[in-house]
């Protein structure tokens, strides 16, 4: 089982998603944490979803909202997708 799921709702964050993933995964690696990053596109009007698709792999997964549900909606969708024993909710 995955130790930690980090959930990050994003709204119009196309320029930040890749760096968010890079830093989160580096933290997992540096602390020897078996973790995953769940990035939620919360109805963005830019290319956030395309960026999430580009960085998705076994440790980075995306969830897409067709319309904006707000940060709480993003966290709830992330919780539904989480596989970790522990969960961390962050802003992107």
Short description:
The chain is of the alpha/beta class.
Give a written overview of the molecule:
It is a single chain. The chain is α/β, with parallel strands linked by helices and 92 residues long. The protein is built from 3 helices and 4 strands; from the N terminus they run E-H-E-H-E-H-E. It has helices at residues 17-30, 48-55, 70-81, and strands at residues 4-10, 35-42, 60-65, 86-89. The chain has a 4-stranded parallel sheet with strand order 3-2-1-4, with helices on both faces. Strand 1, helix 1 (17-30) and strand 2 (35-42) form a beta-alpha-beta unit. The longest helix is centred in the N-terminal third of the chain and has 14 residues, at 17-30.
SSE topology sketch:
Layout: E1 4-10, H1 17-30, E2 35-42, H2 48-55, E3 60-65, H3 70-81, E4 86-89
Parallel strand pairs: 1-2, 1-4, 2-3
Shape: globular
Can you summarize the main beta sheet?
4 strands, parallel
Determine Rg (CA atoms, Å).
Answer: 12 Å
Label the structural class. alpha/beta
How many DSSP H or I helices? 3
Q: SSE order in H/E notation?
A: EHEHEHE
Which regions have little confidence, pLDDT < 50, spanning 5+ residues? none
Distance between the termini: 25 Å
Name the helicity range.
25-40%
**Chain oligomer state:** single chain
Strand content: 25-35%
Strand runs, count: 4
- Overall mean pLDDT: 97
The strand line-up of the biggest sheet is 3-2-1-4
């Amino acid at each position: 089982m995955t130790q930690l799921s980090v959930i990050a709702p994003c709204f119009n964050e196309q320029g930040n998603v890749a760096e968010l993933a890079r830093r989160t995964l580096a933290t997992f690696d540096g602390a020897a944490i078996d973790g995953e990053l769940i990035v939620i596109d919360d109805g963005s009007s830019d290319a956030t979803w395309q960026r999430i698709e580009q960085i998705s792999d076994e440790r980075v997964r995306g969830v897409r909202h067709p319309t904006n549900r707000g940060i709480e909606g993003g966290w709830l969708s992330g919780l539904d997708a989480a596989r970790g024993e522990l969960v961390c909710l962050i802003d992107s």
